[in-house]
Amino acid sequence: MKDLFSVAGKVAVVTGGSRGIGEMIAAGYLANGAKVYISSRKAEVCDATAKRLSEQFGGECISLPADMSNLAGIDAFAEAFKARENNLDILVNNAGVAWGAPLEDFPEVGWDKVMDTNVKGVFFLTQKLLPLLEQNASREAPTHVINVGSIDGIKTPVFDNFSYGPSKAAVHHLTRVLAAHLIKRNIIVNGIAPGPFPTYMLSTGVGGGGDTDNTDWDAVGQSNPRGRVGSAEDIAGLAIFLSSRACGFTVGDVITCDGGSVVS
Known about the structure:
The protein has a single domain (11-195, 230-257), classed as Rossmann fold. Strand 4, helix 4 (108-135) and strand 5 form a beta-alpha-beta unit. By secondary structure, the chain is an alpha/beta fold. Helix content is 41%, strand content 13%. The mean pLDDT is 96.
């Protein structure tokens, strides 16, 4: 019982791990003894985050930059990872993008880019890494996949990002579909639907221009039932639960991490 939430010694992949929610989850794993690979499109940012997290938490964080919106980038990441590891214990499909524009002006590129990254990327990266997820998976010690959706896939978004909410709703249902198939292979799939967190994406939506350090997060949090935005501990704690022995019988669920936004 005392090791219910242990991720020590596990190998994890966190896509979109160079900033925001992905970085928070990667930090949580590192602080609790996991070896973590992070990925993002911008190599220099990914490398810098991996170095900083390794130094901060004394663990091993490895940067493997890749574009998760297309099969070429997904294949390149999978091959680079396979060259370094023989198995994978935790896959966090967190890489995501948004696109904002008025309804009348919303462009095709804003639809395709969001759907490709947020939905297609989740499916095909999971597909490409299945052999490594299965390598050490057993009935007693399953491996775990966590898909990061959004409360915008549950309720109507407040911003004019018309492809984002539908893409996250697709991620939620894809989570259930994959869970039903992969539980037979001793791989447990669940999802997280985050609410407001101090991220680049939300900063651009609330007028902060992506500057997370100077966005007034206290003001943003005042509209949340908890009276604040989410913290690294909030999202990392849920991710650790969903990738530990504590999650041995929770399958195909999408858990909100939103301070009560949806239920309120």
